[in-house]
Amino acid sequence: MTLQESFVSYYPREEVAGDLHCPYRVCPLGAHVDHQWGCVTGFAIDRGVTLRYAPLAEPVVRLRSLDFDGEASFRVEQPLRRIMDWSDYARAAAGALMASGHGLRHGFAGVIGGTLPIGGLSSSASVVIAYTMALCRVNGIAISKAEMIASVLWAENRFIGLGVGKLDPSCEIHCKKDHLLFLDTKDDHVEQIVRRRDAPDFRIIVFFSGVPRALVGTAYNARVDECKAAAYALKAYAGLPYGRFDDTRLRDVPKEIFDAYKNRLPDGWRKRATHFYTEMERVLNGTDAWRRGDIHAFGQAVFDSGNSSIRLYDTGSPELRALHEIMLETPGIYGGRFSGAGFRGCCMAVADPCMADQICDTVAGRYLDRFPQMRGSFSAHVCETADGAAL
Q: Quick one: which H or E segment has residue 367?
């Protein structure tokens, strides 16, 4: 059923207030550095999640999903806890607003659905933003972009339990169509850099491996801790004040100190830190290439980012690594890498739009030759850049 059909079926007596849309995002450069206060880039794409909702007089959320079974129902004015299903993100949105001092007197009935398979496109941040917008509207809460980003971070860090950084909500809030978003996650400096008129056109192609993605239960949090541990040790070796472990980031450590003491780090910590410092260089060099309109240099930086994620950050299932290898060898793809954390899910490519159909056929053919069991689960989607969510 469509979103409209589902809403009428589930909540026939409720008067629809409207649809709230939040796009998905891809991160061409800046992989695995936002939680270390690094610099990142992003595009919002013309696919995402949409929540159709109706305000309720009582402080209750009643929620259905096009992607998951069952109805979620909870009271928003009471202390919330995880119940370990898809509705936790709605509970997280309500919990974040209450934690920031907003009283919630009203809830909503809603149906939510996404336009692409789940995995690697920041769907968790997208749904939290959609739920937060609905709760704000029915409760008369005005929320700024900075407050929305902070609210999503609280929801994912404190409620869901993932050590993610600002990349996902920042892209989904700040991005503009035909612009590359540049974000310094340490000081929140944001630039939307327009594509030069004389630069080649491009599309974002998303390749879903067919392997479901969920960061909970993967090595995602372990990688974050390895980065923090490397930063903590480097500060100690250099005689720098290092404070609390939770407050330590690699961005606090100058690269000269890393170069001086890196050989004293355990191999895993050294690799994670090496990825951080080289990825920061790729972000700056790739952004400069984008400003010049050099899509080939920009794309090569994206490919290099993918290689570093594999070699130094040790991410990528066999399926994702195979997709990355195939993208490297496919004509018409300027650059590509894992989308999201890279444990499961999808890859993204910056590609020549004139060759999009040929690219999709080539990648699908080679991938399914290697993983025939993914036939019916693998998919490719040609996307355009888009504006962020309208708060």
A: helix 356-370
Of 191, 209, 228, the one marking the end of a domain is: 191
Q: Distances from the Cα of 62 to the Cαs of 73, 75, 76, 313, in angstroms?
A: 5, 9, 10, 40
CA distances from 196 to 119, 345, 386 (A): 31, 31, 16
Q: Both 95 and 201 in a single domain?
A: no
pTM above 0.85, yes or no: yes
Q: 152: helix, coil or strand?
A: helix
Average pLDDT over every residue of 41-50 = 96
CA-nearest of 110, 169, 154 to 134 is: 110
Catalytic residue among 34, 46, 67, 168: 168
Q: Are residues 228 and 121 in the same domain?
A: no
Residue 228: CA atoms inside 13 Å, Cβ hemisphere, count? 15
Cβ-contact 40, 283 below 8 angstroms: yes
Cross-sheet strand order for the sheet of 203-208: 333-339, 346-351, 203-208, 379-383
197 φ/ψ sector (left φ>0, alpha ψ -120 to 50, else beta):
alpha
> Is 168 assigned a catalytic role?
yes
In a domain, 391, yes or no: no
* pLDDT at position 249 over 50: yes
pLDDT > 60? residue 383: yes
| Complete DSSP assignment for 318-353 | HHHHHHHHHHHTSTTEEEEEEETTSSSSEEEEEE-G
Total domains, the chain: 2
What is the SS3 assignment for 375? coil
Structure-token match 């305000």, residue found: 55
The residue segments making up the domain with residue 88 are 3-191
Domain identity same for 337 and 258: yes
In three-state secondary structure terms, 181 is strand
Domain identity same for 183 and 211: no
Are residue 209 and residue 154 in the same domain, yes or no?
no
Greatest alpha-carbon pair distance for the chain in Å reads 67
Q: CA–CA distance from 306 to each of 29, 31, 130, 324, 327 (Å)?
A: 9, 8, 30, 7, 11
Is the pLDDT higher at 124 or at 272?
272
pLDDT at position 218 is: 62
